[in-house]
Specification:
alpha/beta; 2 domains; four-stranded mixed sheet; three-stranded mixed sheet; globular
Length: 224
Amino acid sequence: MTLLTNDIQDRLAKLLVEEGLVQESKIELAIKEAGLNNQSLMSYMIEHKLLDNEILVHATSHVSGIPYVNLENTTIPQETLDLISVDIAERNMAVPIAEVQGRIAVAMLDATNIQAVDYLSSLIQRPLKVFMASQNSIKHVLDQYKTDLSGVDALAENVDAQKQAEAESKRQVQTIVQDSPISKALNTILEYAVRAKASDIHIEPLEKSLKIRCRIDGVLREIM
């Protein structure tokens, strides 16, 4: 699993300075402070808002080789979300998105945080395939947790009067989820992207279909 080694951290710092995105003095201070606080450079920069989140995520993805995925228009199946509780997802800014080649694909704001990756892998008890995602992408998926939880709360208020009907409804929903192609589609898309060594993955829902684009060898290609 590729994570932020000292070499990659140095390349990230160099890239940000060369592109004029952050002053060299600020990068040097950030590296020093991050080390003292046992943080990755990216985590420190996010916390202290030294650079626009989207730019920082793309830059880190570029130098680390961790692929970037855009989830701002993507709906994640409930059975996938259930792999990580909402409080842990919010605390780590990390959300499960699919299963890829026997591993659970997790999108993270800071996929270079090896402690967080190890913790999530231990929690799920499965090996992980990590992806970089922007703050907006992570929040979009976190909002799906909240939508599901609000639905559960509404049902709970009427549980005594509707207990039998609710049980039947739950069985029906479970059957629908298991038969739904959404989870399989996400798995297939991400598996293809991993095999093709795509650096960016963009999933855009249209009225009657999905537009899937992957950046392969520097070229953004439509694959679906």
